Amino acid sequence: xxxxxxxxxxxxxxxxxxTISPVPARGLAGALDLDPDLMFDGAELPPLWLWLYxxxxxxxxxxxPDGHARRGKFLPDxxxxxxxxxxxxxxxxxxxxxxxxxxxxxxxxxxxxxxxRTGDMAFVTVxxxxxxxxxxxxxxxxxxxxxxxxxxxxxxxxxxxxEADWQTPVPVDPVLLFRFSALTYNAHRIHYDAAYASDVEKxxxxxxxxxxxxxxxxxxxxxxxxxxxxxxxxxxxVHPLFSHDRVTVxxxxxxxxxxxxxxxxxxxxxxxxxxxxx
Length: 278
Description:
This protein has 278 residues and is of the alpha+beta class.
């Protein structure tokens, strides 16, 4: 795909400030069947839970038919109707604490195009940096992919689940997907509107959010290693996961960290991740 007309967006930056209120963290804790009372002012926010904050709030008139904000203000107006969060690479420098005021700087770093099995594709890489008083807390490179709308469901070839040191089932249902969408102000209809998901984007069910899977993987890794700090974490989606699936979180120790993945009912990997300890 020719992405030359959109290259002018590289370097575009947004700066926002937010207070890390305990309310969203308590909401996610409850949704994940954790104790909400652990999310109080002064407590450390679990890694990746910063995704609950600095949420854009586009007006209804600035919202597209898929539920995403219309493009052209920050993200370039790429004329491919489907949009997905494909993966991220994250580095942690210090924990965020509930109750503090933080700054987030988002910058479009790269735009590229290619042709895949579904047709033209465009990738936009956005760099996010969170800080407190000028001190870095977390940095992320997020890959967003734009795709054509399919005329039928054509999933990628499944990648079998690897041998794992541990496997943990996690519950998933439409209620969890709705709550996670609300907590992250993610109005993409594939996560809560079954008719849209099947009729328009041709999925066989409600789609489990990529960042929700990443949080499952991160939280399970930390639960099994409570005395260790995470330095780097990366993830990428390799297969859709649906609310009707039986989901398992799997992990295997490697030199310096963990290889992680979510696995569906058919034994295929859905989200792959890699974690490095500090």
